[in-house]
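Materials and Methods. Structural model of Gas vesicle protein. The 118-residue sequence of Gas vesicle protein from Salibacterium salarium was retrieved and submitted for structure prediction as follows.
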Amino acid sequence: MDSKSLFSGLFLGIVLGGGSALLSTPISGQETRSMMKQYDLKTLNKKLSRKGKSAVQEWQEAATEGFEAVDGLTQEMKKTYSRYKDEVEPEVEAIQQQVKEISDSISELNERIRKESE
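The predicted structure was written out as tokens:
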């Protein structure tokens, strides 16, 4: 990668991002500064702290729901596997036995045909 193109792309991104931010702000810089002066930092920190705690609680609830869903899915998978072992495996074994019998019969027929053709 060319470092010149990297820096020119980075510079262009900063310029365009700054320009779009300046053009899309809803209020002027002076109004923004006066609003910031009106806020008490402790009050603002408390509000943000409360919002942060509620966001953490929401994430914890979502994670708990996710774990419960995974646990439920795991239980269903165990049941399905158990049912497979109980119902399907004996059928598979019976089919394998039938295939073996058919294969043995074919081999026996081939032997008979070979003996008759001699």
